[in-house]
Amino acid sequence: MKPAPFDYARPADWSAALALLAAGARPVAGGQSLGPMLNLRVATPEKLADLRHLPGYAGVTQQGGTIRIGAGTTHAAIEDGAVPGRLGAILAGVARRIAYRPVRNRGTIGGSLAHADPAADWVAVLPCFRGEAVVLGPAGERRVKLERFVTGMLATALSPEELLLAVELPALPEAARWGHWKFCRKPGEFSKATACVLAVPGEAPRAVLAALDAPPFVVADASALCAAPEAEAARLVAALDVADPWRAAIARTALRRAAEAAS
Amino acid sequence: MKRPISLTVNGRAETVLAEPRTHLAGLLREGLRLTGTHIGCEHGVCGACTVEVDGAPARACLLHAGAAEGASVRTVEGFDGDAVMTALREAFSAEHALQCGYCTPGMLVTARDIILRLPDADEARVREELAGNLCRCTGYRGIVRAILRVLAQRRG
Predict the structure, then answer these.
(1) What is the per-residue burial (b if ≥16 Cβ within 10 Å, else e) of A202-216?
(2) Of A220, A218, A72, the residue nearest B67 (C-alpha)
(3) Residue B101, Cβ neighbours under 10 Å: how many?
């Protein structure tokens, strides 16, 4: 289908972008999630504010132990190694399995996170890291812990006047172990259940279970899951009250496999 | 309301009148009569409309006219003299990699990207990379063989 009519603006700087949002424009970056919704007329914004050309929107920088990934950084750039070190290797593996390469060439990490589709890969994976979202609004910058950023289906901690500038994640030691499993019957389709487990030496392992039509479920201390993946995955999923038995079954399996890979 | 959209298509500067909601595939086909770009699902799944935008494959159905302003686009009509595309066309013919041809323009753009980006790809990787381009005629066997043939040729 063709989208309903909308107007389009390309702000030249951040204050112009915020002014557009204050006037009701819908922000868009790569448009790989919003684009299908526009074409299917599920989303009918009056005006789009295209953030892609804003200075500093894309790119990765490291300061001390913190790696900052600009919200406009594409999945393809992350797949191709834009993020340094062990964290970069982990994120590259996640990025490679997002949709398809032509989508990854346009789609961005910030756009995906701010869109907050429960089945999206960055929505599922980023809360596993002890990181923050950097948010720009009319009152300046503020930070939101990544585990609190997505609040529901297509809902985030952003107000309509705010933009996601970047995500900041801790650099990881080479010894950090990672497990990630997502259930897709075909490569690139929306996940039916995604789990990831991060075990950094000297810290409690963390786990996330996502893509269950709900905000990502974060296990802040996944020590028990890593010690007994099968039993603990069953206990955690049972407590989540997943409506469909098949969905609960693949959620259990995703969590167990991610924990086994990280142990 | 229509507005002039300026972009480069197959090396030529073009200005097309289009509404912001018009997608690039529609702009190419209806505004510029470049009908080699095919429209399938119009929500980013089938891959028929895949073209090169600023040097990398992209879905022409998910890029709306406003966002395409200033972009450099190459469609299946724009690869004359390109060595990889020439080899792919011959391999697609030799390996029966198309029947109805609807998916072929998108397949060729994706295939060329696989060959240039992943010169060491094996069959499993080629199949994974092709997951974003649907073909309902060939069962993919001929397409996979054609891409593997060009990869092997280039490895010498």
Answers:
(1) eeebbbbbbbbeebb
(2) A72
(3) 11
ipTM reported for the complex surpasses 0.95 = yes
Q: B88: domain CATH number?
A: 1.10.150.120
Tell me whether residues A106 and B53 touch, CB distance under 8 A: yes
> What does DSSP say about strands A132-137 and A163-170: parallel, antiparallel, or unpaired?
antiparallel
Q: Give me the residue label for tokens 């391999």.
A: B91
At position A39, the amino acid (one-letter code) is N
Q: Tokens for A93?
A: 């593996």
The Cα of B100 is separated from the nearest Cα of chain A by a number of Å equal to 23
Per-residue pLDDT of chain A (263 residues; tens, 9 = 90+): 899 999 999 999 999 999 999 999 999 999 999 999 999 999 999 999 999 999 999 999 999 999 999 999 999 999 999 999 999 999 999 999 999 999 999 999 999 999 999 999 999 999 999 999 999 999 999 999 999 999 999 999 999 999 999 999 999 999 999 999 999 999 999 999 999 999 999 999 999 999 987 899 999 999 999 999 999 999 999 999 888 999 999 999 999 999 999 98
Please give the residue range of the domain that contains residue B28. 3-78
User: What domains lie within chain A, and their CATH numbers?
Assistant: 7-47 (no CATH), 60-170 (3.30.465.10), 177-262 (3.30.390.50)
Contacts of A213 (CB under 8 A, 6+ apart): A118, A153
Closest CA of chain A from B99, distance in Å: 23
Distance of CA B8 to the CA centre of its chain: 16
Check if the beta carbon of residue A163 is closer than 8 Å to that of residue A126: no
Q: Using the beta-carbon criterion (under 8 Å), do A8 and B62 form an inter-chain contact?
A: no
Type and span of the H or E element at B150: helix B141-155
> CB neighbours of A227 closer than 8 A, spacing ≥ 6?
none
For residues A12 and A63, give the distance between their C-alpha atoms in angstroms, rounded to a whole number: 27
Cβ atoms within 10 Å, residue B12: 9
Q: Report the side by side order of strands in the sheet with B12-18.
A: B12-18, B3-9, B72-74, B50-53, B56-59
Closest residue on chain B to A190 (Cα) = B45
Nearest-angstrom CA–CA distance, A19 and B67: 19
The owner of tokens 């075909």 is A186
Which of B32, B51, B78 is at the close of a domain? B78
Q: Are B8 and B14 in contact (CB under 8 A)?
A: yes
Dihedral sign, CA of B138, B144, B147, B149? Answer: negative
